[in-house]
Amino acid sequence: MRLAELIACLREIFADDKVDVDEVKRVMEAYKSNPAEWRRFAKFDENKYTRNLVDIGNGKYNLMIICWGPSMGSSIHDHTDSHCFVKVLSGRLLETKFEWPKAEGEGMEVKEKTVYTTDGVSYMSDSIGLHRMENDSHRDGAVSLHLYIPPYTTCNVFDERTGRKTECTVTFYSKYGQKVDYRGSKEGRLEGFADFPTTRCNDVIA
């Protein structure tokens, strides 16, 4: 299964509003990482991890590649009622799941920790709790493919020591393989982009 076929399958799945978590996970697992297909979207920054938009399909999801330098990680965060699928494309990621804070001022309670290596797929939603993703290698970078249904522009991050919640805006470092210029524009500017080429979804989820 190629990346273009994965995207075609996702577009077909989300032609309606139903989200079948098991079906989506099977499709994400069916794609085997091929750097030749995703390398043009994988843009690193030496100071932060980057969110790089690959496809919005029919407007019901965001598919993106996140690039993690050595020892980089996210804050503890929610997903504002979205479904979150993560597939490791290169390297490894440590996912730490947390319980929702019971009261502000109390430390966050860890539910579990799981390491995902290349082609591993995880699923997360607000009904499960909160999580943090991090590249726990001090030497190597990591690349992961993230699917969010529906897409969102803000989420809440949480202080592990106090449980304090802060709303933050999420942006893209690049879109469709081109770095975004946010100077004078909230949405960001691109010099031009080509949508992902359409293809057919093979029978990979039977």
UniProtKB/TrEMBL annotation:
Its cofactor is Fe cation. Pathway: Organosulfur biosynthesis; taurine biosynthesis; hypotaurine from L-cysteine: step 1/2. It comes from the Eukaryota. Binds 1 Fe cation per subunit. GO terms for molecular function: cysteine dioxygenase activity; ferrous iron binding. Fe cation binds at H77, H79, H131. The keyword Iron applies. There is a cross-link at C84-Y148 (3'-(S-cysteinyl)-tyrosine (Cys-Tyr)). It holds the Pfam family CDO_I. One of its GO terms (biological process) is L-cysteine catabolic process. InterPro entries: CDO_1, RmlC-like_jellyroll, RmlC_Cupin_sf. It catalyses: L-cysteine + O2 = 3-sulfino-L-alanine + H(+). It is an enzyme of class 1 (oxidoreductase). Keywords: Dioxygenase, Iron, Metal-binding, Oxidoreductase, Thioether bond. Its EC number is 1.13.11.20. Belongs to the cysteine dioxygenase family. This is Cysteine dioxygenase. It comes from Pristionchus entomophagus. The lineage of its organism: Eukaryota, Metazoa, Ecdysozoa, Nematoda, Chromadorea.
